Amino acid sequence: MTMTKETSSDLVIERIINAPRELVWKAWTEPEHIMRWRGPKDFTTPVFRVDLRVGGESYSCMRSPDSKDYCGKGIYLEIVPFERLIMTDSFADKSGNIVPASYYGMSGDFPLEMRITLLLKEHDGQTKLTLRHSGIPAGEEREGARQGWNESLDKLDWYLEKEKSTMSA
To answer: What is the pTM of this model?
Structure first.
């Protein structure tokens, strides 16, 4: 199923990643890899915890260039290794409690819970990645999220290019 159309609450990004699907999967599911690429340009991710099982949680904190932390929490809803990952996505405080987007100075139009769907497909030795982030308000907030995800995926491309020889599938 190709998911390329955006609805009023969905952000969809498709990319061809120059790495085998198994490596892309590892980069999305193992904290030691996620922490190296997740977040917009000039952001770092000093904290990322994963309990990769249906019902398990992920928790992360991204740090902006001015040292402000933005934390998030999710629950894994569906896991099909190397193919699909579906999880909730919420803003959180440093203790892992779900908070509204306004906690971080964003619009109150964000729902408390959004959803991220990641699809990975083989594509001539590379990986076609489709990311659907549902629930982001249209307008400036969605465009900011699109920019952030694209910058993060640029970092993923760079990281995997550098790490392909050392990461084993």
So the answer is: 0.90
